[in-house]
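INPUT
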Amino acid sequence: MEAKEHKFHREEGFPWKHILGLFLSLLLTAIAFWLALATHQPPALVITIIVILGVGQLLVQLYMFMHFTESDDRAWQVPALYFGLFIVFCVVGGSIWIMTFKSIVA
Amino acid sequence: MHGVVNWAVHFFMLDEGPLIWLSDFLIICASLGILAVLTKFRLWKWLWDEWLTTVDHKKIGIMYMIAAILMLFRGGTDGLLMRAQLAWPNMHFLNADHYDQIFTTHGTIMILFMAMPAIIGFFNVAVPLQIGCRDVAFPYLNAISFWLFFFAALLFNLSFVVGGSPDGGWTSYPPYVENQFDPGPGENYYLVALSITGIGTIATGINFLVTILRMRAPGMTFMRLPMFTWSVFVTSVIILFAFPVLAVALALLLIDRDFGSHFFTVDGGGAPMQYVNLFWFWGHPEVYIVILPAFGIFSEVISTFSHKRIFGYSAMVVSMVAIAILSFITWVHHFFTMGAGPGVNSFFGVSTMAIAIPTGVKVFNWLFTMHKGRIEFKTAMLWAIGFIPNFLIGGLTGVMLAVPPADYQYHNSYFLIAHFHYVLIGGTVFGVFAGLYYWWPKMFGVLLNEKLGRWHFWTFMIGFNVCFFPQFFLGFMGMTRRMYTYPAGYGWGVVNLISTIGAFLMGVGFIILVYNILWSARYGERDVTGDPWDGRTLEWATTSPAPHYNFAIIPTVKGRDAWWLMKQNGESINGPKGVPFRPIHMPNNSGRPFIMSLFFFILGAGFVFQWWILAIIGFVGVLVCMAQRSFEYDDSHYIPVEEIEKTEAAAGRL
Ligand code: HEM
Ligand SMILES: [Cu+2]
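OUTPUT
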């Protein structure tokens, strides 16, 4: 835990990035809620917008909170991101594939 | 007044009969007993200073292990109650409602509140020591993880005597668990408790991932990591990607129940099967989360007690990584019968069978490690050897279940029950027991008794097989799971009776373990060397238990089995003589993780009973704790050199 033994650093100054990130993520969530609860657009449109908001949320998390662009040793986040993309592909793609039978049976 | 009394009687389930009264009585006695002991021996301050506020990974590990053993008792009692009910046709020891609640709490507790804390306990006990560092990357977060788990387990167990237990199975499938069919707080307990402990588990995954990536001692390259640490690394990755999916599924179901949405209802455009899909996207990786660390423990134990380095180190690593990736693409095998079509079912059948390949590689590596080794049959080694045939049976029946057309026959039958108990008990629980005997001296400075250990092993091993092997045949004979009683005339009676006898023999094994723990605490052999097994990895290089700072000087690692190499070369763990100590930077204790988790508990209770004022109080409490932490700048201290010198001198390492 010696300061020199590990390479973590304290953030200097006011953490504006985190505050901005917090408000952005709250805002994106609020918009999604509002779309689903208070507007009467066709579901396909609402879902498309929510997916786009979701990608926005992802970017906010990666840049504002997870310091995605920083690294001072090896950039472990790069393989982690590839694995994350693989998992997202499995959840989203897999679920769509598995659940299509519903439209066939219905 | 009358109304209030009626409400309270119902709320505390006093109208439910003697089983609840007895439990109430026992809980009150136990609580009063604990309070009395703490007060009489003036232990409150000790409890707070040494345990409730600690951020030390070794102590957190011990608390996880104690909690896991208690939960094994609770879950095991549930199991024995069920086996008693099923021992003979037409029994009415438990009624249908009670049986439903008991299999639900049994399954949930065993997986989430027994297996998870047990393996996470070993993460804490062993990983920082094995990689040669002084604590995990985020010690404060580690304490939060533990207390979230603790209060979640408390909340879940409370359901037994307050408001009623969940009864939708540990899988909790809608539409049954929606308000319409399953009103009351029971199911909410399940959803809320799992969500809270899930937050803690995700934090643990991050914590150990970062610890292993960033805190390794110099020279400890990835291909020199001890096998157990490798398994923890892989497991942490799986935790990180699987648990969020569970969190989402639980949250959506809770919103359905508490706020009337229609994610998984039958009407209003809901899709109950989507819950099943999401649940198992977490559920299958979850079984690897509890088995991979057990594999890691077996690797350590087998190599130590064969006095050989592990055979096929790289093959072991590659197969673990392969298992981790494959574990994310097999989840449909839990619901082939949903009928998603031949394309889907064949894909997931084949991907499931593929997991047998890396698993087989590992089994052969263990066997080859033992081959021509100087095998020492210590209790830990017995568990590791017993694991292999059990896991083989569990694995082979798993491959049978992975064939979709065949699965249509034995899905949800006792064949399945037998299969998953073979992997969960024969794999995970055996791994936990192996780990307990192996690391007990490191945790407490005392060895568990070998003779009692052998009794524990043989009663449990035999009881386990007598209990679960006949259940494969019950499955073939048509007995389905979650069935609270059955008529005579199917020929199931005798087989069930045999199974129940086996279950009680396992109970005897558990009692022997508890007796062993108590006996050894008093009379057990003290571990004065810190290296009772002639170990190979760095945790055996330091005192038992390790000093607060683990290593006075961070060791430099020159190869695999680092401590073994040092012993061969006659080196000291503190490096060459005369290297001066420097003050050691350590994190401060904090009571906030405990208090914050208490607020989570209050928040959770609010969601269980839909008492929103309570929920708001809990939520505000959590926020205040987090805000306080954000402005805490003085969160660490230095251990002065004199203190280190004193400790090291006492350990004979100067
Ligand atoms: C003392 C040892 C044990 C006994 C006697 C036992 C017995 C049983 C019984 C009788 C059932 C219910 C079968 C049914 O009616 O469907 C069951 C279900 C289950 N058990 Fe165990 N069990 C034991 C240990 C374990 C362990 C160690 C685990 C996990 C680590 C475990 C996980 C489960 C799960 C997940 C279920 C399914 C619950 C459900 O249907 O929702 N069991 N067990
Ligand atoms: Cu599975």
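end of record. The CA atoms of residues 29 and 73 of chain A lie 34 Å apart.
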